[in-house]
Amino acid sequence: MDGTEQSTIFGISSTAFVIFYFAIILGGACIAAFNDKRAPFMLLFGLTLVSIVMGIVGGADMLRSVAIGAFLLAFAAMLSYGFREFLVNIVSTEMAKELRTAPLTAGFGMFVIFVYAVAAIFAPFIAPYGQAEVISSAFAPADENMLLGADQLGRDMFSRLIYGARNTVSLALVGTILAFMLGALAGLLAAVRGGWFDQAMGRTADVIMSIPSLIFGLLMVSIFGSLATNPAWLRMFNGNVGQADFALGVALMCFFGLLVGLLVLATVAESFVGWLISGAITAGVVLVFAMGISTIFNSSEVILILVVSIIYSPRVYRLTRAVAGNVVVMDYIEAARLRGERRWYLIRREILPNSTAPLVAEFGLEFCFVFLLISGLSFLGLGIQPPTADWGSMVKENATLISFGEITPLIPAAAIALLTVAVNFVVDWMLFRSSGLKEQ
User: Is 19 inside any structural domain?
Assistant: First the structure.
């Protein structure tokens, strides 16, 4: 023994690792260049140059980090390609043609969305413990029973992370759908009717959009969040908290349904009798919908859904009004008017089919905004209330672990970021498709 130690990386010596690493990426770059594959060549040779710089600066350990990052990217690319091909083989021929044009980033986004959807739907079967079940001491480390350790109350972090997917994503999804119902209906109707209605809707949207979304959300949640526990409201139900909470949720959803219902009536009904019949049908649908939502979510969550719906519906309105406004001036719309077609026909058969692509892409973007706002409100303590699991509140509750070098609080934050990036990947592809541009 000469008293020196040979450092190893992945079980082999540092010198052998460096030689093997550069041989792999340089060999791949040469093969790509020989086969005239410009994009793979630029990627691999760019990785070679970056690796050389990193190796000079940080040595073999830095090269190991670069190699791990490159491996993860390669694994994500292969996973994205495999999932895209899987979708191509199970969908219709027309959809398969569209999916074949999807980049790997869109495939990765669709795979992540699929994983989150599975976690949200089957959360009770995937999570080993309940979201509020205390099974250990506070901040207990990970072991064979707790994959990610325990939180500040001794609840399983992995179980709460899985349930957080169901709670946070479902609230964001319902809030986005309601925002689109309100904003898209108002935008389509404003484009068809024009005049004073168009001006009134536009100025209302401008006023709401002039208020910062986070401040507006904090204000509304603070005002309406205490209604369920108001003594006067509880006395109306003889102190029954469950009934008071359910009734408040139904009342708030009915108010929102009234706004949407009026827009529907203005679109569908053409006569007084039509208003009466359509109004009765709409009232019944609104009541059933309000009771269904209030059964799934408690009143504080209903308030959160309605707040984010009102905040982001003006954005949907402005896009819908702009897109539909470009369609309304077309000759075939004027021909339909001259034939005597009604507003509902114009919207349903002429305008909406020619406006779908940008609206679907906007739905993805709005979902990201709503999702981030709900997580931000939960982090501030005004969103989803304990003991319900939520990613935003999980970051706040376990933030003290960061000072001890633990990455546990970063896991729910990474879950938020990953879903946001994944949705944006898919939205970027859909925007590219709707733009009519062709890949070079």
Answer: yes
